[in-house]
Each structure stands twice: as C-alpha cells, then as structure tokens.
Amino acid sequence: MALRLYAATTSQGKLRDFRTAAEAHSLAIDPLPSLATIPAPEEDGVTFEANATLKAIYYSRFAPGALVVADDSGLVDSPDANDNTDVWNNIVLLQRLTGVSPERRTARYRCVLVAAQDGLALHTSEGTVEGLILDAPRGTGGFGYDPLFYLPALELTMAELDLETKLSLSHRGRALVALLGLLRP
Q: CATH topology for 3-183?
C-alpha cells in the first residue's frame, strides 16, 4: 500500500506539484478533507519552518491518525506584497528590482515541509534552488514567481519546465524527497 499524506493547502499549484511528485515516488498526496471549511490559523511565525510547523500541527488535529503535510515557501529575502495574487506579487517584485543589474538579481527559492500527526510535528525537511530574477516573465507553466525565476544552467524559467523536470529541481520537490527519506527509513 502506498504511503498517503494529506496536504494542508488550497493552492492548486502546490497540489499539482505534490501530486506530480507523488506519482514518481509511489505516494498518495491528497488535499486535507474539508480543508475549505477549517478556519486557517494565523501564520505569525518569523521563519518558513515556524509557519510550516504551526500549520502542520494545527491541521493534523482535523485528521486523526493521518499524516498531514504543510509547507511554507517562497523567495528568500524577497520584497513582499500584502496581496496574495501571483500577478500582483510579480509586479511588486519587478518594481522593487527596477534598476538592479542582472548579476545582482540572484534569488533562492526555499521550501520547508513539516509532517505532523495528531497535533505532533514528526519530521521537517527543506529544499532550495538558486536562480536569477528576470526583468520580464517567461513561460506559462508553474505559479507564483516561476515565470520570473530563471535557472541559468538550463536557460529556462521554472515556468518553462515540464512538471517532472521542475519537481526534480525545485525547492518543493527537493523538500518532498528529503521528507520521504525521513518517513521511509
């Protein structure tokens, strides 16, 4: 029987990423049942790990006996917007980088995943990927900052990669592989 995890996210992009990774690792990842009806906790942690842990513990209480995974991720040290839409966040990022030379537009995606069960955090993993922020979006795949996040070695943005390649290189894919190593010793 495949390992089953429940993802504490309503982000369709994250769910798509998780499901693609699940297929490659004989794993089932489904959205947490009734997640839309559960009031969201306040994410007041000061780190990705703190917020991922808070969410994993909180949501695991709504799925007795199940392994619940929560993440917190994003660009490290990136300008932040108070609006949580991809287009708005990308516009704000580009505005804040106006006049910054290409070689100074380095970026790092970071993802922290926490698996919890019955209100207890069991395992924490993380993944990162290095890149550059372009001055205009490229590609139609992915979500979030993916159209701006350029991988110099591939000469492509994250939004130009197919899902399997993206997950083999992405912060979320790397964090999931690391988490699976902890769940399947």
A: Maf protein (3.90.950)
